């Protein structure tokens, strides 16, 4: 990428058939729908893609299928997180060789108490940095349980050339984004937020230049970012206020299941199945989700109809 990536970079869901098999045609349709939603890039194999429920063979299949199908229409970000430095480095090389524009990775973790000291985390990222020539996005997410201090994140940015994007989705993300930008300055090409945009406005105020949400309705969230970056703060607030009920319901009640349910309702995919031990949403939660989505007239609800 010649220019810094900004805007909306949603995570693609991984569609499954009812029997649990990967829906390859559904994956292609997911990508096409996301491009039609006006996304600035697509992220695959992330947590909201159920990456922790995919085999190595399925990961390889989905990466190749997705990168071939997108065919350069938008930049592609491949999530490569793993506890093993050797495995994460190999995943990074594979992603670059297949045409990924960027990789994203969490720090190494296993369970709530098994993760390296800060120097081990730094070396984990350094190994990937030295193996590839494309940008790396650090994902600072509560899921890992790994404390990533501003000092450590700033060191990664200053000392590792390819570590230039940061997705901050921990509690008090806005304050951390602001502190990181102050500490690392021009070494950061892309400060981003996550968590489905639940704290997006505060994070934009703190200096975020984009967001990595789910793929459910980036067509409605993208204007929040565009208006804010253009200096139209009142318009950004109005857009965010309109979207907030659906953002909140997705973030607090539905999780990764929301996009699949909306995509199935809109004819993008055939099934909203998730893999066990995850369970489907209750009818109550699903009904409210679809009501809120219809109220916003989001593209995904009519894309395949």
Automatic annotation (TrEMBL):
GO terms for molecular function: 4-hydroxy-tetrahydrodipicolinate synthase activity. It comes from the Bacteria. GO terms for cellular component: cytosol. It holds the Pfam family DHDPS. The keyword Lyase applies. Pyruvate binds at residue 212. The keyword Lyase applies. SUPFAM superfamilies: Aldolase. Keywords: Lyase. PANTHER family: 4-HYDROXY-2-OXOGLUTARATE ALDOLASE, MITOCHONDRIAL, DIHYDRODIPICOLINATE SYNTHASE. Belongs to the DapA family. This is Dihydrodipicolinate synthase family protein. It comes from Stappia albiluteola.
């Amino acid at each position: 990428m010649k220019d810094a990536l900004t805007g909306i970079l949603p995570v693609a869901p991984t569609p499954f058939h009812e029997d649990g098999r990967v829906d390859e045609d559904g994956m292609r349709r997911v990508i096409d729908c996301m491009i039609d939603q006006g996304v600035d890039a697509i992220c695959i194999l992330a947590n909201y893609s159920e990456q922790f429920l995919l085999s190595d063979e399925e990961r390889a299949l989905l990466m190749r299928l997705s990168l071939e199908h997108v065919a350069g229409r938008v930049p592609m970000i491949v999530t490569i997180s793993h506890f093993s430095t050797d495995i994460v480095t190999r995943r990074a090389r594979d992603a670059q060789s297949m045409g990924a524009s960027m990789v994203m990775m969490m720090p190494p973790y296993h369970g709530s108490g098994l993760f390296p000291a800060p120097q081990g985390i730094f070396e984990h990222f350094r190994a990937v940095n030295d193996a590839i020539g494309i940008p790396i996005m650090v994902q600072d997410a509560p899921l890992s349980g790994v404390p990533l201090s501003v000092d450590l994140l700033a060191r990664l940015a200053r000392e590792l050339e390819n570590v230039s994007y940061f997705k901050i989705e921990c509690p008090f993300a806005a304050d951390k984004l602001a502190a990181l930008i102050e500490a690392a300055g021009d070494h950061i090409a892309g400060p981003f937020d996550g968590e489905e945009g639940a704290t997006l406005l505060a994070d934009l105020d703190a200096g975020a230049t984009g967001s990595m949400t789910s793929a459910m309705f980036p067509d409605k969230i993208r204007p929040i970012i565009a208006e804010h970056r253009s200096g139209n703060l009142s318009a950004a607030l109005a857009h965010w206020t309109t979207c907030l009920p659906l953002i909140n319901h997705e973030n607090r009640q539905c999780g990764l299941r929301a996009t699949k349910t909306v995509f199935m309702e809109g004819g993008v995919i055939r099934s909203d199945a998730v893999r066990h031990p995850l369970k489907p949403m209750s009818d109550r939660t699903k009904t409210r989700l679809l009501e809120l989505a219809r109220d916003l007239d989001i593209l995904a609800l009519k894309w395949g109809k």
